[in-house]
Hints:
Layout: H1 2-8, H2 13-20, H3 24-28, E1 43-46, E2 51-53, H4 54-65, H5 74-83, E3 87-88, H6 91-100, H7 113-121, E4 127-132, E5 135-139, H8 158-161, E6 165-170
Antiparallel strand pairs: 1-2, 1-3, 4-5, 4-6
Protein name: IS3 family transposase
Pfam family, one: HTH_21
Domain HTH-like: 60-110
Amino acid sequence: MIAKAFIGQGHPLYKVLPLCGLSKSTYYYLPFCGKRGRKVSTSTLSKEGIRYSNEYVLARIEWLLNQEFVDYGYEKVTGWLNNSEGLVINGKKVYRLMKEARLLNSRIRRNRRGKRIAKDLLQNPPALRVHADRHQVHLHSWSAPQCAADNGTGCLQPWRSGLQARMEHHQAPGH
């Protein structure tokens, strides 16, 4: 304020600013009012070049989301608008329109800790040894065994093949 008053009286700028302790950039600074960046568009073009308002696009989005068994996020809605409706629209614009209309789904928060606990519990699972008549099958994991007695079902069924079987749990060699 003082610098402007002295400069307004005709004193030179290069003498007034050092006396007031201001730099030129601070003196000429203009505060920005409003949002930064490009202004928000109010319409969307179709592939044929027809211009549609944002209200029309939002009405189409609401129509889609009101269909039975449709629970789309903004990415699937963007694909639907581009492919089925023939609009040329960016996902960021669809996200903004859906956010303003409160049509976005709540974020799914996944707890990944449970998977880590299960890995820790089964670091060295015991091997499974199956004795069936004269054949011995040694399994190093708990996955479904593949042998002659499973009949393509993925499960050992000795009673179907007439074999007598007994199972033993023991620690796998080298563990």
